[in-house]
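Hey,
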Amino acid sequence: MANWKAGTSGDAARASGCEYDVFLNFRGEDTRHNFTAFLYNHLVDAGVHTFRDEEKLPIGDVISDRLERAINNSKLYIPIFSRNYASSKWCLRELKLIMDNVSNSGGQKTIFPIFFLVKPDDVKLKTRLDTNAPFKAAFEEHEKNSPKEVQAWKTALGMVDKRKGRVVEENTSQANIVKWVVEKVLEKLETKKVSVPQQLVGLEDQVKSLIDLLDVDHLDVRFIVIYGMGGIGKTTIAKVVFNQLYSHFGNYCSFLKDVRETSSTKEAIIQLQKKLLYDIGGLGSAKQINDSEEGMRRIGEILSNKKVLVVLDDVDKKVLIKNLIGNSKLYPGSRIIITTRDIDILQVEGSEVKIEWYEMQTMDDGLALRLFCQHAFHKGYPLDDYYELSRKVVSLLGGLPLAIEVVGSLLVDKEDKTIWEEKIVKLREVPEKDILEVLKISYVDLDIFQKKIFLDIACFFFNEKKTDAIYIWESCKFFPRGGIEVLTRRCLIKISDDDKFWMHDQLIALGRQIVYEENQDDPGKRSRLWNAEEALQIIRTEESMDMVQALEIDGLDDFIEITSEDFKRLQNLRLLRLGHGTFAGDFAKCHSKLRWISWRHPQNFSADNFYLDHLIVLKLDSSDLKDNSKAWDLIKRAQKLKVLSLTECHDITRMPDFSKCLGLERLTLTHCSKLKRIETFIGDLQLLIELEVERCMELTYFPEELGDLVNLEHFSLLGCSKLRKLPGSLGKLTSLIDLDLSHCNSLIDLPTEVGALPKLKRLLLQGCFGLRELPGSLGNLPSLTELDLSHTNIAKLPSSIEGLVKLESFLMKDARIRELPNFIGQLKSLRVLRLHLSKIGFSSPEHHVWQLPRGISMLKDLEELDLSRCNEMQGEIPDGIGELSFLRILNLEGTHICKIPRTINKLQHIQKLNLRGCHVIQWLPDLPTSLTCLLLQSKSLLSIPNLWNLTSLVELLLSDDSRKTGKSKRLSIPLKLTKLQRVCVACCPELVEIQVEGPNLERLKIERCNVLTNVEGLHKLRSLKYLKVIECTSLGRFIGASGTNIPANCFINIEGITMKRYGEEILPDASKKVQNPLHQYMVALRDCKG
C-alpha cells in the first residue's frame, strides 16, 4: 500500500517538523505594500509555505506566542533591512530570535538577508554616524530607552552575513532580486527529482519529442498520455521528462508511481490522494481525508488554483484519473502526464483540455543491439564471434527494453554457443509480443530455490530491505545470497540505494501469474495470496490452507480479526502482512511456522498464548500499543527473532521486554516520541549487529551496558535531541564500524573512550551544535575513513587528528573551525576535504587571516577541495596544488585568494573550478583542458580569460564586476568548444563585444553589461533553447538578418531595454530577411520601457 508521506521530497520545512518554509521579517511602513508583498506573492506562487505577519506590531516588550511559534517553526528566514527597520524594537526582537534559531539549528535553518535601499555596513553598524546611517542613529535612541536589549540586537545584526543576501539599490531590478530569492529558497528546500536507471540507451529523441509536446511555456492545460505495452520504457521516459521539467513548476509537482499496483483498495486510493496533496499543498492539505470523494474535492480545489506538473504512472482505470485529478478545471499552464497500456484510458468528451497522445516506440535494431550488449558483454558492442548470435537474439525480442535487459543478462558469461542457440529456439516458440512468455524463459532457467525467492519478492518483498528477507530465506534453506546474486545479474531484480528490492511491474506480473497458475480455480491452494479481499475470504472458510505460505491482508475498510481457529488452518504460513487488524483467541494449540510479521496499526490485541517460536522478523508500525499491552507477549518467547522494528509507537515510554530474544541482530526504535530511556537488558543482546534509536525526542539516558554489545557494527542515535551524554563503555564496542550521532543537539561531549574503537570507519557528528571540542583520543582511530563535523560548535581540531591515516572524507561545513591546520598534509588518504566558514553563532573582534597551508600538496589522492565561504583565507594558492593529480573539484567561492598558480595546468583530471566571489583575482593562467565547469566572478579582473583550449567545457560563468580600467574587453567563445552548453555573462562594465560560435550552446544569459553593443555569431546557434538579455542598454544588434539557424522554439527573455529602440532598431534587424521571423520565437518582454 502507498504511504503518502514516504518518498516525498518537496517540502523541507514540513519534512523537518517545521510549520513554515519561510518567515519574513520586515518593517511594515517601509516595504509591506511593495517589495515584501511582491516577494511574498512570488514565494506563495512557487509553493513555498511563507509566514508574513499581517497585523500591526503590538505594544509591549514580549513577542507574542503566535509570532514566537512561527519563528521557531520556520526553516528559512528572510529579514528585509530597510531605512526604518532599526527604529522598530519589534523588528530587532524578531531578528534576535531568528538568529538564535539559526545558530542553534546545527545548520538546518538558514538566513537570506535583503538590504533594501540600505548598505550592509550600515546594518552591521560599521558606518560613521555623520554619514547617512539610519541604523546607527536608531541605536543611539535605543541606548537611551532599552539599554539591556541593545547588545543582543547588535550581536544579531553582526551575525548577518551579506554574502548570503542581496542588496536592492535604487536602480536594481526588484523583479530580478525576487526571482533570485525564490530560486535560492527552492534550492535550499528538497527537490522533486525522481531516480532513473543509470544505463539509458536511445531515449534522447523520444524525450525531446515529449518535451516539445508538453511545451511548458504555453498557458493551456495539457494531458500527455504515454502509451505502449508493458516493458517498453514508459515509466523510465516519464521520470526523465519529469526531472527535466519540474523546476518550471516551483513546488507544485508530484510523481505518483505504480498507480495500478498501489490502488487496489479504497484506502490505497486515499493514500495516493494524500500523497498528491502532500506533494503539492503540504501537510495541511493532506490531513483529515476520510474518503475518496473528499480527496477529489480537495484535489480539485488545489489543482484549480495552482499551475502543476503531475505524473500518474501505470494507470489502468479511467476512474483513477478522476480520483487523482478531480473534476475541477485545471489552472492554466498545468501539465498532467499519464503512462498506461490502454489507449482508451483517457476520453474527456467536450473538454477544453488539450490531450496529446504519445506512443512509445520499440527500439530499432541498432539501439536494441547496443542495450543487449551492455548486459550480455558489459560493453556497447558484441564480441566478434557472437555478433550474428546477438543479432538473432535481439531480432526476437521485439525491441522491448525490459526483455532485452533480462535476456541479455541471462546470457552474460555464457561462452558455450549451444546455450545461445538453445535460447534462440525457445524465443522463436514464444508468440509475438507476449512479453511474459519471453521473461518466463529466464524464470525457467532458475533453480528451485531461486524461483522461490523470485516469487517471494514479486508477491511480498517488493520494496522490503534485502537484509531482513535474507534471514527468512536462510531459515528456510533457500540459499539466498547466491540466489539474489543470480537474480540481480539476470536483471530480474535490482537492489536500490537504500538496500531494498526493486522489481519491474512486468516481472511482478510474471511472478503473480505463475502463482495464479498453481491453481486457477481455488486461491486457497496457491502458495501466496496478496489480494486482501481474496485472502480474507479464504481464511474465513473452514477448509485447510496448507499450500498458503505468504498472506497479505492490508488496505481493507473493515476491522480484521484473525482467530486461533483461522490460524490452525495456516500450517505452512511463513510470511504475514496485516493492517488495521488483530489476533483473538487461545493460540496454545497453534504450531505455527510463521517467520515474518509486518503489522501496521495493530489494535486491541487480546490473544492468549500467542507464542511464535519460529518468528525471525517482527515489524510494528504506527502503533497505539502501550507499555502494558499483551501484544508484547509476541516477542517474549521469540528466541529466534533476528529483526525487531518498532516505528511510530508513540505511546511506549520504555522498551518492551525482549530480554529473552538473545539472538536479535537488528533492532530499530524510530519516532517513538515518548520513549525516555533504554533498559539495561540491552547489554544482554550480545549478537546485536545493528542498533538504530532514531528521532526519539524524549530519550535522555543510555545505560553503561551498551559496552557489552561486542558484535555491534552499526549504531545510530540520529535526531535524539535531548540525549546529553554517552556512556564511557562506548569504547568497548570493538566491532563498531558506523557511529551516527547526527543532530543530537544536546550532546555536550564525546567520551574519551571513543578513541578505542579499532574498526570505526564512519563518525557522523553533523548538527551536534552542543559539541565544542573533540577528545584528543580521536586520532587513535586507525580505520576511520569518514568524519563529519558540519554544523557543530567545534572551534579547534586536536593535533592528534594527523594520526587518521585512512581518513578519506573530512567535512567541516558551517563549523566554527576557521582554518585548515598545518598538519592537514599528514592525512594522505584524503579524497574529499570541505571547510565552509560559518559566522553563525560566532563573532570575534580580530580579523583572522590565514593562507592555504603548503602541506596541502601532500594530499596526493585528493579529489575534491572545497573551501567556499572561507573569506578569511587570503594570499596565493601554493604552487604545490599542481601535485594533486587526482583533483576533480576545486571550490574557492567567496575567498580572498589573489592568485591561481600556473601549475594548475598540471591538473589533468580537474572538472570544476569555482571562483565565484573571488574579488581579488586579477587574471587566470592557462587552465587544463579537462575543465567542464568554470565559474569566475571578480571585481579586480583585468582581462578576460583565454578559453581556446577548454575543449571539454560545458558550463561557463563570467562576471568581472570590475572597476573601470579604461580598456575595452571582448569575450570569444570559439567554434572548437563543441561541448559548451550553458554560458552566463554578467556585470561586465567594459565588455563591448561577445563572439560566440559554440555549435551546441543551449542557454545564453547576458546581464547588466552596459556597454555591450554586439553579440556576434548568435545566428549560428542552431541548438539554442534559451536566450536571456537583461539591462544591456547599449546592445545595438540582437539577431542578425541572416538569423535563420536559431530554433523556432527558442525562448527569448528580454528585460530592461528601451521598448522604442528595441522595436525600431533591434527587432526589424531580426526579421527583415529571415525565413523564420522573430515573432515565431517565444519572446518575453519585461521591464522594457516605452
